[in-house]
Design brief:
The complex is a heterodimer of chains A (about 200) and B (about 220).
Chain A: H1 5-8, H2 18-26, H3 33-52, H4 55-72, H5 82-104, H6 111-128, H7 130-147, H8 150-160, H9 166-173, H10 177-194
Chain B: H1 2-26, H2 32-44, H3 46-64, H4 76-79, H5 90-96, H6 103-123, E1 152-162, H7 164-169, E2 174-179, E3 190-191, E4 194-195, H8 200-203, E5 207-208, E6 215-219
Antiparallel strand pairs in B: 1-2, 1-5, 1-6, 3-4
Helix pairs in contact in B: 1-3, 2-3
The chains are: A mainly alpha (about 200), B alpha+beta (about 220).
């Protein structure tokens, strides 16, 4: 059982390029995968959390992503950067998860009902506690994000959380920068409309 | 009335022209020249300013979106045991590619395969080996016994021979002769007044007629 990074990768250099690590893993140094895990786990979890909105699901999804990446590592040809290749797999996993999850959640109450309830609760919370307010704002944000289509949501997350440029997003999602621009614009408009009640609080 | 309509169209045109660009302008993804044009337009157009504020608000909301720290395992070993990495050879990758075959073509191929298989099975059926002492069993036929109210039944075989004169003319006419085997030697068939003797040499040039080589005729006993 592997526990610590120092044990996993003795003499592992932080400056080591991802592509070199992949080469060494393919050559048989399987433990070096731990280094990739350390480098990408936080960002992958952030993406997974943005897509699922739930910590447990995001953790499971993160593990699934790393498992899938490891399984496909043998097929990495080095034609693109490892980060691009990694995110392509991660994004596909996230989108597949959301599609399957949406099918499962069709019977669950629609987000609008939740929003109405939240507004009533918000009035109470405003007088009570700032921490609670922050929690409710987060809840509303999550609900609004989750109500967007996964294809649009993933763009907003890549732009705002990852801070990627249109070109980089287009490369990772294998679409044109023009598509990124129009989807991003549409996503922001929809999000603003859904968060109308939070105006003045953010 | 007309002025209102023109104003409305102008506003729609404005949104059409700048709507999609506003998001890119917010992200600094447009070139300097376009940036100047959009900034100038935003100063003039209240409608686009509202739109732009909406986009900025969505951006601010996303910045506020908190991502909790991951509670999961800190090392990959706690996530899963790493199995040996499978090297995907180019050959295998080629084989693993999906090959799309049109449905009608695939259906035709399957039908042809089934037909060929059935044909092969039909040919493989074992042939019956006849023992030399046994008479081959006749093929399935309905045998009808008819009682003939006569005293004597004479079997006559109809033979035919290609006439020489016909052959010369190129015609393929065949002349029929009837030979009646009977107890009296030299029982001659009556063929247009000609008499032919019943012997092997007589039959040499004859063969059973194609139409009927066996006729049952009834004769009254003399």
């Amino acid at each position: 059982m592997l526990t610590e990074l120092a044990d996993i990768v003795p003499g592992a250099d932080d400056e080591l390029l991802d592509e070199s690590i992949v080469e060494r893993i393919r050559a048989g140094e399987r433990r070096l995968f731990g280094l990739l895990y350390q480098r990408y786990r936080t960002r992958t979890f952030a993406l997974a959390f943005g897509m699922t909105g739930q910590r447990e699901q995001a953790e499971d999804l993160t593990q699934e992503i790393f498992l899938r990446v490891y399984e496909r590592l043998g097929g990495f040809q080095g034609q693109s950067k490892f980060a691009t290749w990694f995110y392509r797999i991660a994004l596909n996993q996230c989108l597949n998860h959301c599609r399957n999850d949406r099918r499962r959640r069709r019977t669950v109450a629609n987000p609008d009902d939740g929003q109405a309830t939240m507004l009533v609760e918000l009035r109470v919370v405003e007088q009570a506690d700032a921490t609670l307010l922050r929690k409710e704002i987060q809840h509303q944000l999550r609900s609004a994000l989750l109500s967007l289509k996964p294809e649009v949501r993933v763009l907003l997350l890549l732009k705002e959380i990852e801070g990627l440029s249109y070109e980089e997003i287009a490369e990772r999602l294998e679409c044109s920068p023009g598509t990124v621009a129009s989807r991003l614009s549409r996503g922001r408009r929809l999000l603003a409309r859904k968060l109308e009640s939070l105006k003045g609080k953010i | 009335m007309l002025k209102k309509r023109i104003d409305r169209l102008a506003k729609l045109g404005c949104r059409w022209r700048y709507g999609r660009l506003l998001s890119a302008y917010l992200d600094h993804e447009v070139d300097a020249q376009a940036e100047g044009v959009i900034a100038g337009h935003l100063r003039q157009c209240a409608r686009c300013r509202v739109e732009f504020e909406q986009l900025r608000f969505a951006n601010r909301a996303l910045v506020e979106f908190e991502i909790p720290p991951m509670r999961g395992p800190l090392s990959v070993g706690q996530v899963f045991q790493l199995p040996a990495l499978k090297e995907v050879s180019p050959k295998k990758r080629l084989y693993s590619q999906k090959i799309a075959v049109p449905l009608p073509l695939a259906a035709g191929f399957v039908i042809a395969l089934i037909g060929a298989t059935l044909f092969a099975i039909g040919d493989d059926q074992p042939t019956q080996i006849q023992s030399p002492g046994l008479v081959p069993s006749p093929s399935a036929a309905v045998i009808k016994v008819v009682e003939v109210p006569v005293e004597r039944v004479v079997i006559r075989t109809v033979y035919s021979r290609r006439s020489v004169s016909s052959r010369v003319r190129g015609a393929q006419k065949e002349k029929e002769f009837t030979l009646t085997p009977s107890d009296s030697k030299g029982d001659i068939a009556r063929n247009g007044g000609k008499s032919l003797e019943w012997s092997d040499s007589t039959l040499k040039d004859f063969r059973p007629a194609a139409s009927a080589n066996l006729r049952v005729v009834k004769e009254h006993e003399k």
